[in-house]
Amino acid sequence: MHEPTARHACMYIVISLTLSSMSLGAAQPTPSSPGRELMRLDRGSDACKGIVAQYLLNPRGEADGLFLIDGTQIHFPPHMSSELVRVIKAGDRVTAMGIRQNSKVFTAWQIIGDKNKNAVVDAGPSHPAGPPPPVIVLKAMQAQARVKAFLYGPKGDVNGFLLLDQTIVRMPPETAFSFSNVFQPGQIMSVRGNGSESSLGRCIEATSIGTDDQPMISIYDTDFARSSPPRRP
Fold first, then answer.
1. Are strands 46-57 and 93-100 parallel, antiparallel or unpaired?
2. pLDDT band (50, 70, 90) for residue 214
3. 20 to 30 A from 184, CA-CA: which of 23, 39, 65, 209?
4. Tell me: the pLDDT tens digits for 71-97?
């Protein structure tokens, strides 16, 4: 009689200890994934706050940035365009997380609308099933207005100009830099090229540019390209 009782007691102790260990394990918080934390560190943890003045577009009409009222330019990949324009509007105050390239350029992986708290996160480009998206045909466009600000790429290279009528002018960084001493803010710029226009704004990929009192110059002319100064390091 004593031997079965002792055996049962031992089994009861073992089961109790096992259940206790399971309970303690369940109570502990799940550690975060090292890969996810590393990804966040690689993307940057700087913060940028401000009020949106307008979207920045590429010539295809996709939003790939925000121009803030204080002149800061927030960059993000164009695959975030459709979600971002649905959540963020001109006049909204936003907070972006990412990497500050310089005083005017910020590369974001997350943008939050301070009012509605909706967040747009760069999860990488999606590849939905079905037919490919329609080909966007750029149309011939032109503009003439005073320069409001230089535009920069995600790494801080000058790659265009923003005009006071909100037209976005894009061109290769080497060309944009060579004209950055000519088209200072306040200078009238004339531009011809190809681009798109929608409710989001208008963007021209420049092929010819000039001042208000000078003839237009083709930026892809061989002689011009040869005389252009080297790209800023």
1. antiparallel
2. confident
3. 65
4. 999 999 999 999 999 999 999 999 999
